[in-house]
């Protein structure tokens, strides 16, 4: 019965993680879900996470990154209101591997909000292969916000979701939060390439909820 | 309702107990094999029929009893849903509507009616029609009846709806979610009228589903039925039922080590089919997924289970569960489940199921991780410990000592037939290393044996050809053939293996970190020599022509502490020495069987002839196939036949005398049939056994002429009639 009760939770926004195997999707999900790099157990593992953002319920879907399931991952994208496209900043080919996922987003909702996330930021100083410029250029080409984050240190992980929340529900959703404990303002830190919400592209993304994937 | 649920729970529990009992029996004595969840293999059935474990038998009996009761209740429920289901639904909702005082709020009722009718727009859909009928009945009842009771003796409202559907509408596709939207509206109504109800809205929706969906389920299902998809998926699940965890990409550390891998998720997934409401189907599916997550998490508790880990295992579960009507079920869920739910956890598992179904539909054996790179190294010969136990208990020629199971990561198993080894659940498997023999250095505890391939009915032609090309060039004699198909499921993925290593010491050494005390090393032998020798040795032992002195085991030198050489004796090559031993024991014609390279096929020919003969003599159960394997079934049948016909017992072994005796009995009947004109008198028995259909046709012709039951088998009555007819003819 507990399972049924847990399973009956409605979701306001479906967010789907996409990216090649090993780029760190699951770690990011876990970090967001538990705000820790330590593993924890949820109802169905790390595959699905339900988290509330200023009264809105985010359903975060992890997807399989293996090549053999890539073309089938469209099933996971169906009805998604936001997509987090993850690449590994230490692996150049992981960025352009995302090309294959763009078609899958055709099954997402119209105006699906996209965020390009460079993972493993903590390893960047020694092993960066994807430059900020290249990532930003790619983000622009797919009409996505760009941010780099580390599941290990937690840097910028929450901001990914703040960007999505603001992008989909608007700033009002944060400021009108009834609990009086708004999340940190989703502004970038100097050490990352986070697109500022007051940038043109970000502002457009944040205000234009009908933007097509 | 409560009784029904209780009964279903009890049946489920019994099934689990039964599977556990089989598993236990299989582990303890290797007598029963579990063939998937809820199904007993033929071998398992025979074990039961032959006076197997009383606990299993009693469980089986109770399960049959419960399932019969459940079927009867199900039929009663179906009858009820056809006659009074909708009326009952109306009653429940109307009671909620009228409240304790029994008076409806007229203004509210009108508003609600308008709202509900708006929900079912556009009209002309099955759901709309049903909902309209529901509304109509609901309002007519509440307006006309002074009492809220709705009699089940009323005309069948459900049949009327169905008729209206046929008369007034074509079956057209309506927009999805209508039914759920309607149910939600009803739930709001119920909660509005009964603020004291402490149930959340979803719970009320589920409750309403339970009363509404049984009434519309069959038509709803018909509307979404995908027969072609169902058939394709079922065929694929069946075709790939043998695919192992490894080949589907389940990481070794997550692979199930149970006798029936992922038995609980498989059992739960099967329940998806029997549920009749979208929510129940979703919950059954979710519980299956959750059980799988739990199992995967238990395997590696230090790491959260990601979709990368979950999905291959889920595909494995979907294949093994082979859920009836899976494509239709998915269409049903997508059409009737509340779409808002499909964005959450439930949606995740539905999407996973869709992905799995799509993957399985397009599954091609060539697309699976190919064993090509695995097969170029040095081969191993592996055998399952549990399957050896009975043999080892009775005979210590082989040194299979107790200890932890050996599971070798990244290795591929090939199966060797049971009859190579012992006529009682004695499967052996061949394993070859995956590319390199190096096992993960960090392996803590046992790794997992991966992959099973058989070379007959369970083996895809491409696999068979591959095995031939890699191992058997030139192909014959084939050393790797099918295991007993009855035992197949139990072999699949079983980690219970002792390891016999053929090849150089280096190969063995690299396996040593796994579990040295269960590695059996045969130094210096290549695959062909080792397999042939072991095969020969076991067959020779089976035929009683060698004794224990040939199996003198000895501890392998320091390189592999604790390991023991088994079944190795230079004198047991399959060449002249063995042929001489056989010839000395049974005469030159039998000795010749062993004197050339084609040992296997010639012995198999004898076994096949014996199986055909015993079938025609009605001494083998009808369902036992002719399969070239001298297993315990054939052994038992031979013993029984010898006893029945007063022949000399051969101890269940196939020896020349026993073989001749059986053929003698059949030859007499062949002669009778020939004299009666049913057979060509020039056709010898040996020829007829190569084309046994002729012999069976002759028996059938005789049976028809005598107005006997026609089955092509020489049962007691046919045998008596044949003797009598022949006697008259001779007289």
TrEMBL record, chain A:
<feature type="compositionally biased region" description="Low complexity">
    <location>
        <begin position="180"/>
        <end position="194"/>
    </location>
</feature>
<dbReference type="Pfam" id="PF00071">
    <property type="entry name" value="Ras"/>
</dbReference>
<dbReference type="GO" id="GO:0003924">
    <property type="term" value="F:GTPase activity"/>
</dbReference>
<feature type="compositionally biased region" description="Basic and acidic residues">
    <location>
        <begin position="196"/>
        <end position="213"/>
    </location>
</feature>
<dbReference type="InterPro" id="IPR027417">
    <property type="entry name" value="P-loop_NTPase"/>
</dbReference>
<dbReference type="GO" id="GO:0005525">
    <property type="term" value="F:GTP binding"/>
</dbReference>
<feature type="region of interest" description="Disordered">
    <location>
        <begin position="180"/>
        <end position="213"/>
    </location>
</feature>
<protein>
    <submittedName>
        <fullName>Member Ras oncogene family RAB22A</fullName>
    </submittedName>
</protein>
<dbReference type="InterPro" id="IPR005225">
    <property type="entry name" value="Small_GTP-bd"/>
</dbReference>
<dbReference type="InterPro" id="IPR001806">
    <property type="entry name" value="Small_GTPase"/>
</dbReference>
<keyword id="KW-0547">Nucleotide-binding</keyword>
From TrEMBL, chain B:
<dbReference type="GO" id="GO:0031267">
    <property type="term" value="F:small GTPase binding"/>
</dbReference>
<dbReference type="Pfam" id="PF02204">
    <property type="entry name" value="VPS9"/>
</dbReference>
<dbReference type="InterPro" id="IPR037191">
    <property type="entry name" value="VPS9_dom_sf"/>
</dbReference>
<dbReference type="Pfam" id="PF01471">
    <property type="entry name" value="PG_binding_1"/>
</dbReference>
<dbReference type="GO" id="GO:0005829">
    <property type="term" value="C:cytosol"/>
</dbReference>
<feature type="domain" description="VPS9">
    <location>
        <begin position="227"/>
        <end position="369"/>
    </location>
</feature>
<dbReference type="InterPro" id="IPR003123">
    <property type="entry name" value="VPS9"/>
</dbReference>
<dbReference type="GO" id="GO:0016192">
    <property type="term" value="P:vesicle-mediated transport"/>
</dbReference>
<dbReference type="GO" id="GO:0005085">
    <property type="term" value="F:guanyl-nucleotide exchange factor activity"/>
</dbReference>
<dbReference type="InterPro" id="IPR036365">
    <property type="entry name" value="PGBD-like_sf"/>
</dbReference>
<dbReference type="GO" id="GO:0030139">
    <property type="term" value="C:endocytic vesicle"/>
</dbReference>
<protein>
    <recommendedName>
        <fullName>VPS9 domain-containing protein</fullName>
    </recommendedName>
</protein>
<dbReference type="InterPro" id="IPR002477">
    <property type="entry name" value="Peptidoglycan-bd-like"/>
</dbReference>
<dbReference type="InterPro" id="IPR045046">
    <property type="entry name" value="Vps9-like"/>
</dbReference>
<dbReference type="InterPro" id="IPR036366">
    <property type="entry name" value="PGBDSf"/>
</dbReference>
């Amino acid at each position: 019965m507990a399972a049924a009760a847990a399973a009956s939770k409605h979701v306001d926004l479906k967010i789907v993680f996409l990216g090649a195997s090993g780029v760190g999707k699951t770690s990011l999900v876990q970090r967001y879900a538990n705000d820790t790099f330590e593993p924890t157990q949820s109802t169905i593992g790390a595959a699905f996470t339900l988290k509330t953002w200023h009264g809105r319920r985010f359903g975060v879907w992890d997807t399989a990154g293996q090549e053999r399931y890539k073309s089938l991952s469209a099933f996971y994208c169906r009805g998604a209101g936001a997509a987090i496209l993850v690449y590994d900043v230490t692996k150049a080919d992981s960025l352009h591997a995302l090309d294959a996922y763009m078609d899958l987003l055709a099954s997402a909702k119209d105006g699906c909000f996209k965020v390009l996330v460079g993972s493993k930021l903590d390893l960047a100083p020694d092993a960066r292969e994807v430059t900020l410029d290249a990532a930003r250029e790619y983000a622009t080409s797919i009409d996505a916000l760009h941010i780099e984050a580390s599941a290990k240190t937690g840097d910028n992980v929450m901001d990914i979701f703040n960007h999505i929340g603001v992008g989909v529900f608007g700033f009002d959703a944060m400021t009108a939060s009834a609990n009086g404990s708004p999340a940190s303002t989703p502004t970038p830190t100097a050490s990352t390439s986070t697109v500022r919400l007051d940038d043109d592209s970000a502002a457009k993304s944040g205000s234009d909820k009908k933007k097509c994937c | 309702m409560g009784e029904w649920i209780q009964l279903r729970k009890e049946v489920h529990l019994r099934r689990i107990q039964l599977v556990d009992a089989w598993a236990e029996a299989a582990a303890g004595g290797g007598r029963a094999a579990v063939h998937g969840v809820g199904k007993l293999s033929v071998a398992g059935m025979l074990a039961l029929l032959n006076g197997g474990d009383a606990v299993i038998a009693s469980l089986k009996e109770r399960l049959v009893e419960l399932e019969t009761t459940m079927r009867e209740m199900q039929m009663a429920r179906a009858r009820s849903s056809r006659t009074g289901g909708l009326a009952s639904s109306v009653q429940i909702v109307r009671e909620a509507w009228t409240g304790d005082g029994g008076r409806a709020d007229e203004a509210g009722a009108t508003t609600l009616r308008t709202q509900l009718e708006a929900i079912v727009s556009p009209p002309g859909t099955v759901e709309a029609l049903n909902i309209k009928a529901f509304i109509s009945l609901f309002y007519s009842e509440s307006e006309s009846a002074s009492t809220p009771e709705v009699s089940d003796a009323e005309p069948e409202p459900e049949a009327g709806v169905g008729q209206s559907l046929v008369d007034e509408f074509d079956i057209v596709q309506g927009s999805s979610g209508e039914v759920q939207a309607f149910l939600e509206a009803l739930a709001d109504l119920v909660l509005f009228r009964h603020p004291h109800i402490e149930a959340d809205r979803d719970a009320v929706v589920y409750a309403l589903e339970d009363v509404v969906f049984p009434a519309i389920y069959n038509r709803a299902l018909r509307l979404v039925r995908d027969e072609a998809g169902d058939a394709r998926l079922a065929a694929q699940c069946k075709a790939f039922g043998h695919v192992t965890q490894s080949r589907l990409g389940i990481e070794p550390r997550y692979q199930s080590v149970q006798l029936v891998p992922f038995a609980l998720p498989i059992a739960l997934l099967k329940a998806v089919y029997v549920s009749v409401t979208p929510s129940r189907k979703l919950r059954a599916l979710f519980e299956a997924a959750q059980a799988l997550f739990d199992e995967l998490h238990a395997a590696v508790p230090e790491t959260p289970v990601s979709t990368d880990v979950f999905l291959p295992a889920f595909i494995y579960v979907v294949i093994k569960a082979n859920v009836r009507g899976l494509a239709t079920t998915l269409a049903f869920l997508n059409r009737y489940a509340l779409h808002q739910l499909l964005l959450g956890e439930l949606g995740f598992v539905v999407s996973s199921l869709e992905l799995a179904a799509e993957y399985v539909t397009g599954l091609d054996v060539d697309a699976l991780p190919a064993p090509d790179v695995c097969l170029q190294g040095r081969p191993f010969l592996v055998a399952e410990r549990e399957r050896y136990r009975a043999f080892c208990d009775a005979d210590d020629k082989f040194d299979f000592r107790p200890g932890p199971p050996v599971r070798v990561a990244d290795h591929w198993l090939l199966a060797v037939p049971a009859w190579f080894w012992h006529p009682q659940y004695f499967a052996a498997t061949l394993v070859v290393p995956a590319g390199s023999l190096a096992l993960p250095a960090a392996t803590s505890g046992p790794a997992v044996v991966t992959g099973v391939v058989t070379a007959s009915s369970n083996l895809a032609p491409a696999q068979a050809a591959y095995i031939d090309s890699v191992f058997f060039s030139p192909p014959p004699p084939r050393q790797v053939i099918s295991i007993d198909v009855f035992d197949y499921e139990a072999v699949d993925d079983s980690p219970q293996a002792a390891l016999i290593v053929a090849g150089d010491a280096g190969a063995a050494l690299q396996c040593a970190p796994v579990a040295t005390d269960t590695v059996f090393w045969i130094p210096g032998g290549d695959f062909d020599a080792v397999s042939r020798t072991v095969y020969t040795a076991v067959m020779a032992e089976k035929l009683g022509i060698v004794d224990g002195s040939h199996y003198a085991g000895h501890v392998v030198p320091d390189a592999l502490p604790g390991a023991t050489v088994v079944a190795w004796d230079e004198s047991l090559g399959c060449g002249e020495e063995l042929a001489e031993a056989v010839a000395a024991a049974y005469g030159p014609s039998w000795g010749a069987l062993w004197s050339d390279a084609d040992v296997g096929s010639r012995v198999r020919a004898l076994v096949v002839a014996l199986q055909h003969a015993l079938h025609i003599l009605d001494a083998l159960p009808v369902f036992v196939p002719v399969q070239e394997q001298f297993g315990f079934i054939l052994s038992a049948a031979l013993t029984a036949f010898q006893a029945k016909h007063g022949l000399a017992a051969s101890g269940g072994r196939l020896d020349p005398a026993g073989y001749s005796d059986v053929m003698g009995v059949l030859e007499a009947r062949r002669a009778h049939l020939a004299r009666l004109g049913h057979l060509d008198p020039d056709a010898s028995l040996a020829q007829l056994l190569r084309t046994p259909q002729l012999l069976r046709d002759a028996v059938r012709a005789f049976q028809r002429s005598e107005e006997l039951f026609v089955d092509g088998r020489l049962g007691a009555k046919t045998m008596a009639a044949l003797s009598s007819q022949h006697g008259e003819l001779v007289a």
